[in-house]
């Protein structure tokens, strides 16, 4: 991470690929820790949020200039000098964007047993942070009930597609938006009652036809949030999961005009971060118990979008922020 972007990050200016500090996997001293090889990285939208001035407070620390960017990822342990991890363990956690990393003995990494032989990428997607966001957000923030009308934006993506499917399983009526016809076709496949391409269709009209919303799952903010606010039922719930439409807006204007609807419709608007919800639950047991079997039985559909090579990690992140990804974006750094 070389410089703080004012708006859109530029590869070569803010994000640089630097091989000079690479670790020799056979020789590097471990000091009682582990050496891991990066397999997969997760260019989550929140990575952009950490590219900021450290004086600006947020839920995750700002990146340090000159240090690698980090994100969730999957790595394999190549060498270990601690009983906590053994050679060959697959681990998931916050991984610096480098081919090899050395972690101390008590690293905040979780070894995955993957007894059902699911794709490793699921541990940074469907069964990882995005899937957990969908599950805990829907249960704890929206508290969706059978027959309720829910609108989901960024609905074909990592979080949104799981929100849609869990809400359908709970008997909700779901209207969902995404930005391409290909994404709309997928939304129909996963059972939404109405799919809207917000780039080519009139979202406001589609919501009006669908009927007043009990709940809105906001993955994008901006004009979509505005239109959703205008279509809420009195006492409805707005779950603010993400505001991706403004992450590269230097002024952070968010562009929301219909704030008065929060008062006039007496809405409950709540922002949330998945980590807090998981902590309050004391772990992800409930998620694993309910969603794990659905995934193993193939009852949840999930798209993934692959970028090969760590040197293309910056491009993958920009792709997510622009909407070029179709499904959970995964950077494949190494096969094994
Ligand atoms: P996705 O896989 O959904 O990818 C992001 C998508 O956002 C793009 O594919 C694009 O889809 C859409 N998008 C990008 N720019 C815009 C725009 N200007 N207007 C409308 N849509 C846009 O990403 P995730 O599922 O990982 O994340 C979705 C949202 O959830 C993000 O805002 C993220 O920050 C948030 N999030 C929040 C968490 C929390 O704990 N609160 C945890 C995880 C994610 P399209 O083509 O449809 O526009």
Automatic annotation (TrEMBL):
Query: Under the GO molecular function aspect, what terms does this record hold?
Result: oxidoreductase activity, acting on the CH-CH group of donors, NAD or NADP as acceptor
- Which key words tag this protein in UniProt? Oxidoreductase
Read off the Gene3D superfamilies from this record: Medium-chain alcohol dehydrogenases, catalytic domain, NAD(P)-binding Rossmann-like Domain
Ranges for domain Enoyl reductase (ER): 49-331
Query: Which SUPFAM superfamilies does the record associate with it?
Result: GroES-like, NAD(P)-binding Rossmann-fold domains
- Keyword Oxidoreductase applies: yes
Which Pfam family, an example, fits this chain?
Answer: ADH_zinc_N
In terms of superkingdom, the source organism counts as Eukaryota
Q: What name does this protein carry?
A: Enoyl reductase (ER) domain-containing protein
Q: Which organism is it from?
A: Botryobasidium botryosum (strain FD-172 SS1)
